[in-house]
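Before surveying the methods themselves, let us examine one representative protein, written as a sequence plus integers encoding its fold.
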Amino acid sequence: MNSNSNRTILVIGTLIAVALIALALVAVRGKPAAGAGLNGNFNLTGQPFAGKADAPVSVVVVEDFKCPVCKTFEDTIAPELKTKYIDTGKAKLYSLVWPFLAENARLPTDDSKLAAQAAKCVYDQGGNDAFGSFKSILFRAQGDESTVWATKTRLKDLAGNVEGLDQGRFATCLDTDATAARVDADEKQVTDARVNHTPTVFVNGKEVLNGSGQSSYLLADVSAAIDAASK
């Protein structure tokens, strides 16, 4: 091999190394330092919540109705938080829906977004209680995340189980995508905060972490964060 070939290989190798270093720097800059956690300074005006409006601690759960781990959170952890903190007036629990799973899976219909739109249609009619009821219904009806299950037809059927909901008004809201822009605004808030998984839990704007500095939605870690914020 002549010197020109060696020189060419050296140049190519150097360029590859520089590119890899640049990619590594971008990856590091896109994430908080270990143990630092994310800051979620969300605008919660008009967002549904459970609890008393004047509760001193705000808990925000970022979730997708197609997310199976979110279903686990709602089934097993949220009820404990309700008993210990929500019902006692110590905290209020916001639901910030981030519809990303259908898009990530490249499904033919973005039913993550349709479910989020439907939930806002319910909230607009019935407020926090109706939203909470519909959220529970959606998680109970959750299908496989790799399939399209939250179609507009299915969502209308499920909304029929929400007491007092005007079904015609709901159907019009969903069919006209009346809440789509607000769902997009919520998504922007979440992505701007660099959230990359669901559920992600924030207490007074700080991501809940475990003892190892990793994001956590577990009851013990969320409880510790609420207790600390209450002091």
